[in-house]
Amino acid sequence: MTASAVSMVLLATACGSDKSDTKADAKPSEAAATSAAPAAKGKTDAELAKLLVTQADLADHTFKESTPAEAAAGATATSDKPECKVLVQAQAFVPAGTPSGTARTKAIATPKPAAGTSPEEAAKAVAGALGSTATTVTLASYEAKGAEEAFAAVKTASTKCAGGYAATQDGETTKISKVTPGAAVTGGDESLPLTVELDADGKKLTTQLVLVRKGNTVATFSSLSLAGTAEQPKVLVEAQAKKLG
User: Fold this and answer.
1) What pTM value is reported for the model?
2) What pLDDT, in 10s, does the model give residues 136-161?
3) Rg, C-alpha atoms of the chain
């Protein structure tokens, strides 16, 4: 997560048999048949786009398409510590590993004034929305065991880089002070909620990073707020996990 990102606002044990039965009567095991099954096929960009959470799924959020320019900017993300690069990329909307397809969207919670609210109160609500948590959702699909490996890579980095590192994107460097476990989330086959604290242009920010893996697809949620402290996008995570099955 760099200063430029902030300005946008807006991852069988085998059972032995008796020795006397291992020769003539040996038959292909169920485990062997399973191991011979075709590897999982990754989804394409178009297939993933249909799985992205949308306005129809969350009426109290405002959605906006992610641009190619944002993805290109994220591709420059790196770190002073090689082991932390995958973590920097996750917050820069770049999936780990080599996905077969990707899809992205952006969402922000939009509190609406209650019925009968005065114009002044409505204006305050709109102003307050500027401090709402903005989240970029990235879906990445992989062939074979790619999703599990990508998820594991970010999980390992979150431990190795817990004490902090520097993140650089588009020539701008931001100091990440620490990475800690975030509030637990539900959904998917495995999840990784993280809280990432950083210093952007002298301002302390608390951001949220959540990964949810379902089968061979990994959903990454990177959240920030101009108010300084981002809330974990729990509703968004649950809605997206539901769409992944």
Assistant:
1) 0.80
2) 999 999 999 999 999 999 999 999 99
3) 21
